[in-house]
Amino acid sequence: MRRPLPLSAAAASQALPLFLLLLFFSAADAHNITRILAKHPEFSTFNHYLTITHLAGEINRRLTITVLALDNSAMSALLDKHFSVGTIKNVLSLHVLVDYYGAKKLHQLSKGTTLSSTLFQATGSATGTSGYVNITNLKGGKVGFGSEDNGGDLNSFYVKSVVEMPYNISILQISKVITSADAEAPTAAPVSLNLTEVLPKQGCKAFSDLLIAAGAIETYQSNVDGGLTMFCPTEDALNAFLPKYKNLTAAHKVSLLLYHGMPIYLSLQMLKSNNGVVNTLATDGGAKYDFVIKTDGEDVTVKTKVVTATVTATLIDSEPLIVYEVDKVLQPKELFKAVPEENDEAPAPKSSPKKKTKAPSPKASDGEVAEDADSPIGSDESDGEPEDQTADKNGAFGSNGQRSIVAMMLSLWFAVLLV
Length: 419
What we know:
By secondary structure, this protein is an alpha+beta fold. The chain has helices at residues 7-27, 33-38, 44-52, 55-61, 72-79, 85-93, 103-106, 119-122, 195-201, 205-214, 217-223, 235-247, 250-258, 268-273, 386-391, 400-418; strands at residues 65-69, 96-97, 113-117, 132-137, 143-147, 156-165, 169-174, 228-233, 261-262, 276-278, 291-296, 299-303, 308-318, 321-326. It has 16 helices and 14 strands.
């Protein structure tokens, strides 16, 4: 006959699954490859192609991952081959290992060598075992990498560790692209989507007309193949906003319209799981033109420093293009006066008023001046954004709140065990 568990053991057995569940959901938001690499400009090209090939989203969704990063020079050698975006995706997916390898583990491999599966293998695009990478410790601090379908040729080598978050994500720089005939094989070109034809038919005619009239449609169209997410304001929202829109200079109208697009495909599920600060098609150097994506249950909002818009519908979802309907026109702080947060403290008195400056990019056309109430204002780089600060913390868990919950549950579990 089974003896009943003591109270403390029974409580512990119930607390453990809860703790593991919290740990899973906390770790699921533990890293953002795009934000991490943004702090390392030598990998800017690699970071850009992780975005437009949608590999960044796949990397962020995985709990344990190793990224073999290529610097701008190594990426130039890859781009010189003029592969399609689909082929570049296959090649780069071969550089994402679905296991954790820190610098220490590389130099302490059992038997000195191992085979690691990659995203290229996991997606089913690879044939046979061509999606596996051979990792060999050659001693003397040298570690080689080679595709399994490359005859065992270790054509790339470990350079340095860029970022390690055990055992969540590791980013290691390697010397050159891992060559693979299978990964480099031609891929079918994606079906071309003509925005001027698609948008009006799917409930986005008024916004489409503005894009065409301002000449912003070309920028949107050039980003479709690599992935594009658009936020289309409703016709009522646009009509209410038109008086302000007409007061903008031609250049600022373009910036406002580009502010409604992101150069990446984000499905609704991806949008919900990628909360935080994101760049837009209008982002350019000092002009940040970013906004914050927030999820509350099933509701998704786009929050600028001026307005908060709610995603009300998905008008088009045909990868690489997705278009969401929003109930307000997105207004960037670079062009309109920011609305103080409810918890913002009153600003300290200033000794003398500062002269407003025009947004650094793009420049307004000569002779064009906007009205004071709706005119562009200078981008204040010192403007502290809590969302930025939170999004850039790349600790083992996604946020301080998540870490606190996990720590509390862990302490509670151990306390129960000791009773």
